[in-house]
Each structure stands twice: as C-alpha cells, then as structure tokens.
Amino acid sequence: MAACLDCVTGSCGTRRAPPTAPKQQRVELNVGGKRFTSSRRTLSQCPSSVLATLISGQPEADGSYFIDRDPNFFGFVLSFLRDGAEHFVAPDDARECASLLREATQLGIAELVVLLGREMAEQAEGTQQPGAPETRGYVGAPIPGNETERIALLNSLDVLYTRREHHYDCIADVVAALLDMPIVLVSLVSTSEQWFKAKCGLAADTTSRNSSFCAFTFKPEDPKMASMLVIEDALRDPRVADNPLVIGEPYIQFYAGCPLVTSCGM
Predict the structure, then answer these.
(1) How many CB atoms lie within 10 A of CB 260?
(2) Would the pLDDT of 121 be above 80?
C-alpha cells in the first residue's frame, strides 16, 4: 500500500519514514495444540517469563505463537497473570496443583511458583484431621519374590557407593543426547535406597527406595520376561502419581527404564 505524500514528506520537503504500526494487543497462543486468546499486557506481567520472551519474537505463519506446554493448566496461568495473586484461585486437588506448579516453573513465573508452593503446604497440613488415624505415605514399588537373592548378588558385586567412573557417566550423557532426555541414570537399588552409579542432569546421588521408579522394573522376576517400563504421564499413572519425586522436585513427568541383568541371569 502506498503512503500518502504528507506521511513521507516533511514541511521542508525532507523525506521521512511512515510511522510504524503498533503490534496488535490481542495475542493468539497455540499451547500444545490448543488455542488461547490473551493480550500482550497480560502476557507481559512477568517480564522474565518464557511467555514475555515468546511474544517479543515473531509469530507463526498463521499469526499465533506456539509453545509446547500442557494446555490443561494454561488457563490457570492466564488467570494468574490477568487477575494477580490476590484474586487467583488455585486447584483444590493436590495433583492438579502439583501439575500447575510444574508448568509455572517451566514458564518461569516465579510469583506463581511461590504462591503454589505455599498453597500445597497448606493443603498438606489440612489433609490430616485432628483425631483421625494417621495415613500411610507413598510405599513405592512392590518387593519382588527374589529380593533376598537379588540383594545378596548386588552386595557381592562390590559396586554400591564406589567412586564415580567416567565411562559410566559417558553412557548416561550419550543416552541423554540420543533420546533428548533431561535426566538419565544408572541406578542400583538396595534395601533402603537407590544409588546412582552414573547420572546426567541430576544433582542427587541417592533417593529413598520407596521413591524409586526403577524398582518397578524388578517384576516379573524372570529375566527372560524383562522389558522396558514406560510411564508416559506420571501424574496419571496410579503406580507413581503420589511419588514424592512426581508431586515435588524434580517433578518427574515421564519415565522409561529397564532392569540390569547380570551374567548369572539375575
């Protein structure tokens, strides 16, 4: 479209650029395949967030901005940014609250992370009613039938709590790169905890046994029946939905693992 002469030429006949059209205030977001409509003002409420950075760039060909996050909880994120902490209502369900906390962490919305952490702590305190019997905590994977023999063999290998070895860490690094996974571990599970012989993407050296995902790979006990265990959505899998590593740091979403089988067939 041609600009009019008055827009291009000043009073002295000097040429000037036409005014730049402001960015539209309405923003279309494609969040994991689901469409949301918001405003630049709302999405810029947290300047350091992923969303603020996203809308400062160029949109997709259809004019929308794509972000690969869970759309089921994005409405809560928009409500927080639009209405503020004072009027925000968090999910009542602890698992949904944990999922939302995970999304807020990934999106870099620090104030929402703090608010949800406080909300989850209050929910945990309110779960146990005065005079009510104490509830059991998360118990983890079932104990396999060959547990005594398995532990005896593990101890005989003299591998537990040995020094870090570069070639094992390299295996973890290579697998992480090939599969594009943030965390890869070589885990040895004892009677009370699991210890990581090699690791990539995790600072901890151990966790409690009952929080171990790897312990679920011990069944069936027959090595010939062993296979890859895949948990696509930890929060929706009843085996691990209440696992402390799912509803808390590092907020595990996906797991894939298989048992290590020794040369003696266990």
Answers:
(1) 16
(2) no
